[in-house]
Write a structure and sequence with these properties.
Blueprint: H1 2-17, H2 23-26, E1 34-43, E2 46-57, E3 64-68, E4 77-80, H3 85-90
Antiparallel strand pairs: 1-2, 1-4, 2-3
């Protein structure tokens, strides 16, 4: 239990110093703030969508933080609300 309290106090101290690294832990990753990131690739007059990461909308300033598992060669990204599971299963 003491170890847990030590970590909490370290985070509080870091926040007081203005250390933004610990703000990531406080980010609200609720479903309403979570987005899906897709890479768009155009080939033979078709566009292919590949899921390459997630994004989160900050409640503080509406900025978007994207966490990518891959980098799109085309440079095109699409950030969207996730589809409800029922809609994905119908495809």
């Amino acid at each position: 239990m003491a170890d847990r309290n030590d970590r909490r106090s370290e985070r509080e101290e870091a926040r007081e110093r203005g250390d933004r690294r610990d703000d990531r832990q406080d980010r609200d990753a609720s479903a309403e703030n979570r987005k899906v990131v897709y890479a768009l690739t155009e080939r033979d007059e078709r566009t292919f969508w590949t899921r390459i990461g997630v994004a989160f909308v900050s409640k503080k300033d509406n900025s978007i933080t994207a966490i990518l598992d891959a980098f799109p060669v085309s440079g095109k990204l699409q950030i969207r609300d996730p589809e409800p599971r029922e809609e994905r299963d119908e495809r």
